[in-house]
TrEMBL record:
The lineage of its organism: Bacteria, Bacillati, Actinomycetota, Actinomycetes, Micrococcales. Residues 303-374 form the ACT domain. Belongs to the prephenate/arogenate dehydrogenase family. Residues 18-295 form the Prephenate/arogenate dehydrogenase domain. This is Prephenate dehydrogenase. GO terms for biological process: tyrosine biosynthetic process. InterPro entries: 6-PGluconate_DH-like_C_sf, ACT-like_dom_sf, ACT_dom, NAD(P)-bd_dom_sf, PDH_C, PDH_N, Preph/Arog_dehydrog, Prephen_DH.
Amino acid sequence: MTDSVAKASPPRATRVHGTVRIVGAGLLGSSIGHALRALGVDVVLHDASPSQLRLAIDYGAGRAVQGDDSPSLIVVAVPPDVTADVIQEELERFPGAVVTDVASVKLEPLRTLQERGVDLTHYIGSHPLAGRERGGAIAARADIFVGRPWVVCRDAGTPASDLALVEGLALDLGAMPLEMSPEEHDRSVALVSHVPQLVASLLAGRFVDAPDGSLRLAGQGVRDTTRIAASAPELWVQILDANAAPVVDVLDALAADLTSVADALRTPDAPGARRAIADTIRRGNEGVERLPGKHGQNRRFEQVVVMVDDRPGQLGRLFGELGELDVNVEDLRLEHSPGAQFGLAEISVVPSAVRRAVEGLEARGWKIASTTND
């Protein structure tokens, strides 16, 4: 071997120590396994489905149980309707381990365990706000947690060392741990996750009987709005059932807003009707402004839309020339028009870089379709 051959870098130090047992080898469980193994952590996988378990192991998410494995941390990544049962089983089987779960609802499993009288000293509920439209071990990725919030639900009796281990798991995987109560978590995800899923599904459901001609007009906006409508119904029935009350609260408020807009549109010439419609759009503007942007910041970016020929290497060339112009791409969205031989690359940049990006790209032969201020 010559000196020019690069040597593999040793895994960096981790906050998680010992063996990590992951129960549930689906998307989240396998993704956690991949990320930990990349850091050199010993990962043991268990799943009620032998085929799912073998698939996850074959893909490298962890190893099979070998005799008397003694995990320091157990991650329960199973469907919501069996989360409490599995947490109880793991706490009783491994009393020396810290147990967390990654279910998207936190209050119902906790109440179930409390009603059963389970010793919850070493249990800490958590939830990474990460995922994909596709599920299962085959869709798992080690990087889906990077930069994403990871809610940790501690209580007054949580040992500091246990809390450090669960938060360390989030940090090791590149996530941002946030402490919340189970009640606060469930209200929050009802607003930013569960109701958006229903809204996307309801809107996409209107496409089922729509004329083909109408759907041919669909652009990137409607695709963005309905992207999560491709999610698995079986899982979402469980999630929505477990968090029904907070979801209903948001749906009732949203239904009232929809009724108000519909009434204004029925009589657009009535006094105040146009203002009601304008206020609806304006309030949406204000809400979007509150959403955290890159790295969790509330910093706003401007958009430069560039026409990109549908040929190999064009996006790479665009990014390379933006780099030469010292313009950082903060975000990117691609839109392809049906039948067109080009796409539109919507590049998000800091406001101070807009002019430099536009003038520099045009000088290099790129066609600018629009900017935010057009």
